[in-house]
Amino acid sequence: MVAKTYLFSYSPEKSGWTDRCIQSHLDMLYDIKYVHSNLVLIKTDDDIDLLEKYLVECFTKKDRYFLIEITDQSIRFQRTESKYINRWLDDV
């Protein structure tokens, strides 16, 4: 099965529990790369529905998030906080 790449970003209503929960869930995933503080690239074999169920249990009704599959999209960026992002993206 081919790995897919997802872009995940979230904005909790209040910092604290949501941040800790998301961080613990992301730590259990095999391959992630932080682009910025709350913007993460995730590489996984799971489909978007499974990944969403896995992450959504951390959110309250007032929290916000985006989860987008970007596997076959062209990539452009400038001054990311992450090192070696090109190599990571090319290794899908």
Write structural notes for this entry.
- The structure is a single chain.
- The protein has 92 residues and is of the alpha+beta class.
- The chain has a single domain (4-90), classed as Alpha-Beta Plaits, CATH 3.30.70.
- Helices cover 29% and strands 28% of the residues.
- It is built from three helices and four strands, in the order βαββαβα.
- Strands 2-3-1-4 form a four-stranded antiparallel sheet.
- It is globular and about 35 Å long.
- The N and C termini lie close together (11 Å).
- The mean pLDDT is 79.
Please describe the topology of this protein.
Blueprint: E1 4-11, H1 17-28, E2 31-36, E3 39-44, H2 48-56, E4 64-69, H3 85-90
Antiparallel strand pairs: 1-3, 1-4, 2-3
